[in-house]
Each structure stands twice: as C-alpha cells, then as structure tokens.
Amino acid sequence: MPPRVEIYDVTLRDGAQGPGIKFSADDQLRIVSELAAFGVSYIEGGQPGANPKAADFFVRARDLNLHNAKLAAFGSTRHAKSAIEDDRNIKALLSAETEIVTIFAKSSPTHVKSVLRVSLDTNLDIIAESVAYLRENGRRVFVDAEHFFDAYVEDAAYALESLERAHTAGAEILILCDTNGGRIPNEIATIMQAVRKRLPNAALGIHAHNDSGCGVANSLTAVAEGAVQVQGTINGYGERTGNANLSAIIPNLQLKMGLPIVSAEQLRSLSHLSHLVAELANMAPRDSDPFVGRDAFTHKAGMHADAVQKLKTAYEHIEPEVVGNRTRLTVSEMSGRASLLHKAGELGIELDRESPETRQILARIKDLENQGYEFEGADASLELLMRKAQGKHRTFFEVRGFHVTVTQQPGPGEALSEATIKIDLPTGEQMHTVAEGDGPVDALNNALRKAIEGTYPEVRDIHLEDYKVRILDGQLATRAKTRVLIESSDIEDTWNTVGVSENIISASYEALVDSIEYKLLRTRGHDEPA
To answer: How many CB atoms lie within 10 A of CB 10?
Structure first.
C-alpha cells in the first residue's frame, strides 16, 4: 500500500452525466471552490472542447482560489484522421491552460476495432503520440485506460502494451478504469498485481464505476494493491448506477486504512460537502449513505438507542462528528424510554423516566405510528405532541371547518382550486376567508394564512420547502391512507411536520396546521396567555 493517495474528483464531468443532474456554470465554480477547500488533490473540470460553456468554465476558473488543488482538463487522444498539431480536441485541451491534462485511451482490442475502427498498432501509436505532444507543450499528463479491466480479461498482452506505450511516452499516472463497473474486488487485485509486475516504476490510479455495487470496494482494493490516485464523484453521482463514491472512499482511506487524505478539520466538513453538492445537483441527499447520510448514525430500536447512550461504540463504527455528522435517536413504535428521553432533551423538553406522562407519550406515539404516522422525519409534530401531553401547548387558533373545491376549466390540464376556511381566534373573532391556489393544498394553505396573518404576521415568513406524499396500504387503492410530510422554513430554521388520513387534503391540512403552530410556538412561546 502506498504511503499517500491523492483524490481526483470527476463530479463535474462523470457526476454531471447522472440522470437528472445538471450543473449551471455558477454551480460548477462553487463546487470547484468547495472541493479545493476540502482538500482534494485534483478537480476535473470537464472537456474544454465539448461546447462554449465548457471552454468558458476554464477561463472563469482561473480566478478561483484552488488552495493546493490542481484543475485538470479532460479529453481524448487525437482523432485517428487528424494530425496531432491540427487535432481539435488536443487544441482545446491546450487552450484550457491547465497544468494537468487527462486523456482517455483505448486499451481494449474490441473497442479499438469497433469504435475507433483502426488497427491495434495504430491505436498504440495514437496513445504514444498524444501523450508525447502534450508533454512537449508543458503539460503533466494522466492517462485513463478506458475499459482496462475488461480489456485485460479480453487480451492481457494488448491491454498491458497500451499502458506501457503511454508510460514510455511520459504519462505521469496510468489510471485503470472499470468503465462498465462489472468487476469485483478479487479481480481488481489480481489485475493490479499483474500491472505492477509489468510496470514496476509506473504510478497507477483507479477509476471505478458502481454497476455491480463494488465501486467503493474496488477502489479501496486498488489502493491496497498500490494505486496512488483514486478517481470518483461526491455522493457517487454518475451515469447508470454511478461512479465510485468519494464520500465513502475518503473516510475509509483515512480512518480505516490510515492514509493521510485531508486534515482532520477538512474531514469534519465532509457531510456539509456531500449535502451541498446534492443541493446544487438538485438531488435529495440519500439518508442511508455511509458516513454522511442522515441515518448513518441514527438508532431506532430501543435496545440500540439505550446502548449507544451508554457506550457510543456499541453501534457506531466511528465518532460521527469526525465526518461532520451526529448521532440521532429516533422515536418510533420500536423505541423505548431511552430514545424518548434523548429526543425530548434534543427538543428542549424535560421528561422524567418513570413518570406516567412519559409512558403516556410513548404509548401515544406507538398508537399513532400504528395508524400510519411517521415521526422519524417530523420532529416539529413530535414536539407538539409532547407539549400537548404535558399541558404546555398553547392554542393559537381553532379551525371550525374548511371546504376545498377543484373546478376543471375548458383547456387541458387547466383547473381552478379554491379553499374556504373558518377560524376562531383567541380574541373571540371568527375569520371566514377564501383563497385560490395552484392546487387544493396550496389553496388551503393560502386560505389558512390569510385568516391568521393579521393576528400573527410572522406566518408570512414561512416557506414551504418540500411536500411528500406516501400512500399507505396500497392494496386498498383509492381508499388507502395517505401520509403527508411537509418541510417548512423561515430565515432561521427548517422543520418537518406530518399528517395522516384517508383523504389527502385532510392529511395535508393536519401537517400544515402543525407547521404553523410550531412556528408560532417558537415566536410566541408556549407559556404566554393567548
């Protein structure tokens, strides 16, 4: 195993090829800055010859503070029909003015014949000439040997020859690519050993895809066999099932394999980096992701939660704070008093372990979850439930009833939603308001706010961030219960509420009311008279 391994991030290229992901030009620059601050060694900016936006990125990136990171331009070897000095791709790579240039080369005889449609010897000449020319023009050259592991299985001699020609021409690092993502760790190890035997003085890297679910494992195996560079993407974004996930690779290399990748302070920002890239990619963070996911250190079973409070290592393989995460104990039908007391403490509520009140709250939670409620992702509703059980809940308004209508208009898809609501305020005044919306839930939300914002103007600060609907007992078809989770925010905080009903509007209404009551509880307090 090498004494040091460098991280080469390909989020802006391979990651951007993932379904549903599209980074704006500003997003790209933000990600580069964050990756550089985090401490990765190399950041691939994409292909400067792909389009004007890509070329402009490299111009704008010159003004960024990259700390100790190096920006790399990516492209192919020269085209078979182009002279090296006239090749458009080679010219674009040089015009990017990056110190590092990474080119991909064919190492599989099948791809040489079927894709490039040149002879095997011609392909080897193209690889050598492209590397040498870029070196002559002052660039450090990395070579991605595309489909290398598959190529080795197909024709080991030719695959190794393609690497040797690149190395002899001056390639600084040879990156072995599992482009189809179909290889498993023992194959990676065997082939890495063969390459090191053939090229003992060459620096090797690994570029793994995750089609067999082994992207991270294959990358770690390659390092154990001498790879000095690991390529991957933040959160494992990429085409098909994604690339090797750097959000898991980096902490594994540093915490499990003892390799110095980034500083301890930088490693503590890993969860932040993961969530930021997810936000810019317009992708919901995966709660179940190792190390950085919200559930990575979450404990639901009562026995586990109790044990973790006594001994953190009982069910946690590292201290979550090391990667910027934290321990969470959820309150659910599987939870015991330990989880409930811990969660109450997080919410600022004092509960006595042996009190009837604690037993009552736990019984109420289990009863509601049996009906379909889910409090693991709805802390605001959970806090309101606890305060009601303690008699510390303040009634800010009382809904007497509401009515929602949806009228189909003549045009296709054109529908008008209107909600009417009656509310009693603590002043004794009754409000009767009507509002329209983009849908029935939006109309109800608008009518509810309209009724109370004169008395509670702070509700204008509430923004609906997310709205999730889950059908429970799907076999009941249209009679099934619906669970609605709503995420709300203001300028200071974000909170989540839940509602359940056979009627989606009623479930949404319940979650909306909880959201507003939680906001008012925070701004007005629960002890003051209404």
So the answer is: 28
Rg (CA), the chain: 29
Cα–Cα nearest to 299, from 320, 278, 284 = 320
What's the pLDDT tens digit per position in 171-200? 999 999 999 999 999 999 999 999 999 999
The whole-angstrom separation of Cα 383 and Cα 375 is: 10
Cβ contact 260:266 at 8 Å: no
How open is the CA angle 249-255-261, to the nearest 5 degrees? Answer: 65
Strand, helix or coil at 294? coil
Judged by DSSP in three states, 427 sits in coil
Task: Supply φ then ψ for residue 481, to 5 degrees.
Answer: -75, 150
3-state helix, strand, coil in the chain (%, to 5): 45, 20, 35
Phi/psi for 19 (5° steps) reads: -55, 130
Could you give the CA distance from residue 309 to residue 326 in angstroms, rounded to a whole number? 13
pLDDT single digits (tens) 313-367: 666 789 999 999 887 666 544 455 566 666 666 667 777 666 777 777 777 777 7
- Centre a 10 Å sphere on the Cβ of residue 17 and count the other Cβ atoms it contains: 15
Enumerate residues 6+ apart whose C-beta is below 8 A from 220: 249, 252, 253, 257
Separation of alpha carbons 83 and 491, rounded Å = 58
Q: Give the HSE-up count for residue 134: Cα atoms under 13 Å, Cβ half-sphere.
A: 37
Residue ranges of domains in the chain, CATH in brackets:
6-262 (3.20.20.70), 298-384 (no CATH), 398-524 (3.30.160.270)
